[in-house]
Amino acid sequence: MEIYLDKYFDYNNEQLVYSIQETQNGDFILTGKITGGLPVDGNAFLMKINSFGDSLWTKQFGGTSDDMGYSVQSLSDGGYIVSGYSGSFGNIGSYIIKTDSSGNIITGTDEVTITLSPFSVFPNPAKDEIFIETTSRFDENFLFEIYDLQGKLIYENIFYGRFHSVNIEDLSSAVYFCKLSCSNCVSFLKLVIID
User: Fold this and answer.
1) pTM score, two decimals?
2) Closest CA relative to residue 99, chosen from 123, 124, 75
3) Cβ atoms 101, 94 nearer than 8 A
4) How far is 166 from 113, CA to CA, in rounded Å?
5) 119-193, which class in CATH?
6) Residue (of 88, 39, 48, 54) closest to 68 by Cα position
7) What is the pLDDT of residues 135-160, one digit of tens each?
8) CA-to-CA distance for 151 and 78, rounded, in angstroms?
9) How confident is the model at residue 113 (pLDDT cuts 50, 70, 90)?
10) Domain range annotation of the chain
11) How far apart are CA 176 and CA 42, in angstroms?
């Protein structure tokens, strides 16, 4: 395998990149979690780099608890939408941020925490392994299943606790659906597996 770009960004912090997308002009937008040197558990970050890997800008979002971005998409207006996880703002749940082309939150919108799903799966897209994280208030056994687009059950296991990993090396590159079932909930998430 030939490496086309190898870049290290030293912000005296640990940065975990969960998603990268090419922008309309050939640059790249990244999201993930930045920790270390912060007075909080971690913040979601959004970074734009050019095709040479040079940082154009970096923005951080979050509150006083653990926050991270799992996926980023370019929008037709040139801005970006980040989805992730937030433990800040009084709730634990999904985290959605809409920005302009410079990574600034759009006026008239705000960071949003949605508490619809009791779990998250990351990274997404994934390659060899996924991680399942449940909310801290989730304290019961749950059934975790992966289905292909034809509805065929590909994987199932019963878990207990907040954090688990699943080996997906044997799954083909495709779109799948993850299902979490517990005594009083059923929740679905889309999962993309890449080679």
Assistant:
1) 0.52
2) 75
3) no
4) 26
5) mainly beta
6) 88
7) 756 678 889 999 888 788 999 999 98
8) 35
9) very low
10) 14-114, 119-193
11) 29
